[in-house]
Write a structure and sequence with these properties.
This is TetR/AcrR family transcriptional regulator. Keywords: DNA-binding, Transcription, Transcription regulation. InterPro entries: Homeodomain-like_sf (IPR009057), HTH-type_TetR-like_transc_reg (IPR050109), HTH_TetR (IPR001647), KstR2_TetR_C (IPR041490), Tet_transcr_reg_TetR-rel_C_sf (IPR036271). The chain is an all-alpha fold. 75% of the residues lie in helices and 0% in strands. It folds into two domains: 4-54, Homeodomain-like (Arc Repressor Mutant, subunit A, Orthogonal Bundle), CATH 1.10.10; 64-196, Tetracycline Repressor, domain 2, CATH 1.10.357. α7 (86-103) packs across α8, α7 packs parallel to α10 (154-166) and α7 runs antiparallel to α12 (181-196). It is elongated and about 60 Å long. 29% of the residues are buried.
Length: 199
């Protein structure tokens, strides 16, 4: 006999809702420390119901880090990131990266914690390097334009800049008492460009 409540529950789950649960568990237990049984228990559905949506744990990881990467790379295609002076485009990218990180906090947290132990993690690390490289190129262009100081190597400046932004995953928790994302993006931009702009 078919358990209709189980069928309804499986059907009520979408890849999106399953991903939300998966990312929470991956962030709590680590990808390597999470089993399909853990995901099944957290989602309240059977393992076979999970396999109804995806091929396995690594596909869930790829979907999750892919969502974070799509958000970040999408910034680089926004009109304000593609036209105008390099320094203004860079400032837009920094501000929007802060906003995307806050909006997609669990997904970006997972992306920043991958270590390269699987093919998906290696792919994610390559994508992160490609993103960092594009930002470093933009920063170098702003230096050549004379808008940013030339005494700090662009790749180092990029690493320091993103170190500040990425630290949000350690302390930022959305809530009524937390500063608004806009307030944080303003602070990051002010601190970064106050130090980076040429005198």
């Amino acid at each position: 006999m078919v358990d209709n409540s189980r069928v309804q529950r499986r059907d009520a789950y979408t890849v999106e809702t399953l991903l939300a649960v998966t990312v929470r568990v991956f962030n709590e237990r680590g990808y390597d420390g999470t089993s399909m049984e853990d995901l099944s228990r957290a989602a309240g559905i059977s393992k076979s119901s999970i396999y109804h949506h995806v091929r396995g744990k690594e596909e869930l990881l790829r979907l999750a880090v892919g969502r974070a990467l799509d958000g970040l790379f999408g910034i680089l295609d926004e009109p304000a990131a593609t036209t105008g002076r390099a320094v203004d485009r860079l400032e837009h990218v920094v501000r929007r990266t802060t906003e995307v990180l806050a909006a997609e906090l669990p997904y970006v947290t997972l992306l920043l914690r991958v270590r390269g132990n699987t093919a998906t993690e290696q792919w994610a690390l390559q994508q992160r390097r490609a993103y960092d490289h594009r930002v470093a190129e933009l920063l170098a262009e702003a230096v050549r334009d004379g808008d940013l100081r030339s005494d700090i190597e662009p790749r180092l400046a990029t690493r320091l800049l993103y170190g500040m932004i990425n630290s949000l995953i350690e302390w930022y928790r959305p809530g009524p008492d937390e500063k608004s994302v806009q307030h944080i993006a303003d602070a990051v931009t002010l601190l970064a460009f106050g130090g980076l702009r040429a005198p």
